[in-house]
Design goal:
The protein has 143 residues and is α+β, with helices and mostly antiparallel strands. The chain has one helix at residues 2-31, and strands spanning 33-42, 49-52, 65-68, 73-79, 85-95, 98-103, 106-116, 119-124, 134-142.
Length: 143
Amino acid sequence: MRRSKLVIIFTTAVLLNVTQLLSQESNIAKLTGVWEIEGTLMGDNGEGWLMPHKPKNPDCETKDHVVFKEGGKAFEVFYSSECAENRKEYDWKLDENQIILSKSDVSKPMFLHKVDGDQLILGLRPRPGSDKWMYVRYKKIEE
């Protein structure tokens, strides 16, 4: 009887681990692509009305965006008032419900609130050490 309980506990633990890994891989596949910044959600817990993102020059052909590539490379792209590209490159990884961007000794954790179809909502800390989150919504524009 005791052995049966141990086998059930062990099997359950293995299944939970496998399920978590599959979910992790699924989220990585969903995140891979180009995400245009739509704006900041004004409210708590990733809900509320959207305050649209205001680029420096709304007439630029390409909009500010984030790219997550397979193999752990990512970059943020913002455009100047003259539409010149400003790109910051990072390594990225998904750790449960956090996306961690890193470059040299600096890491930037983001809370993965939602990734579903062409919508991504990330929680960002407004300043280092803050216990609050600011939620930003993105729209997938390219796989």
